[in-house]
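Usage example:
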Amino acid sequence: MHKLTIKIDASTQQDSTVIWNGTFHSSHKINIGHNTIPVSIKNWQDVNDLRIYFLQNTASIRITDVLYNNMSIADATGQLHRYNLMQINFISQKGQDNDYGTALGTSIDGLGYLSLKLTYPFNKWFFKKWQEIIEVTYDKV
Amino acid sequence: MIKYNPQHDLLLEEFKNINWHEERQQLKTSPLNKFPFLPLDIKIPTADRKIIFEQLKEQNKKMNEIPLFGPDYQPGANKIWFYGMRTGTDWIKDYKEWYKISSDTDIQDIDHLDRIMSKYDYEWKIECPELKTFIDSFPKKKLYSVEGGNYQPDGKAYVHHDREKFNRVSGDLLYGRIYIPIEWEDSASLYWYGFGKVPIESGRVYVLNTRQIHGSHNQSTEHRYAVHFAINPKTNKFEDLLKSSKQNFLKTF
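Running the assembly step on the lines above writes:
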């Protein structure tokens, strides 16, 4: 059993859509405040792509944690995860990807989606991500 | 009583079980600064090690009186300070000052750190001639600190990386904490990113790449003692020791 949990804070109500390896996974109602998006993984490959789309977002979404089988990235890395956790992809009003570019981070203002590449096995991915976050951010803070 | 932290225990248990076979193989072509640790071709003589072990046991009561920094991350662990800076106040204050300086984010390189550390006088706070003789003979430019550590049975260091800045200045070489396990059983385990369980030999000297995440769990029924020290390593002799040790280490897997 592989379980991902994405925790986000939202400032407006909206729907979100989870895409796993290019295939629809689930839809979620997002409320103002704290939200939890559970992603049960049934099909995986060596490299996997998790995307969470926020196509009704008119304000701000902030990712506060990613957990794999209850192991928390935020707890492991402290504040460091904010700098290099996910790929943030912005979408323009015309529906074009990347009009405003992409960025590493934890916040989306306006339309966009989160993208996270996960290698299998996922427990190893977790610790590699932890080390990567330390290496790319620690000396800068 | 070991403090229980469900999230940190979960992370440590998972970390202990990761299979790093692929990463171990990659070490064969990796530069030294990517190594998780390196056993050096140097050992403390067994007779001296036994004397140091007895001294560490004697100091055990004193160790228990010393608050570790971040005890939530190292339940059941404590330390003493054999050698370090002297500022004229008490040694716990001195240790806190040492910790602050060695973790300072503004330190750019070993020479910069050396300039800062040269402002202080140093002293052996606990006399241990056998340890002093061995460390005096170890290749280095300058000695900054010698600590003794003790993990109780079931003592742990949760998965973390160290904030000491010495390991930032490795260049292509490996430099970090110089570590001597004085007395421990096989089940007094140390686990490292990219390698897994570290094969420990009591008395062997190791360089630990503490910039990489690591964790520890003393699953034996005995206390686990180690000595570690911080130096300015910039000598040809130390570089030569690293290079020859790397070749010998790679022959083991």
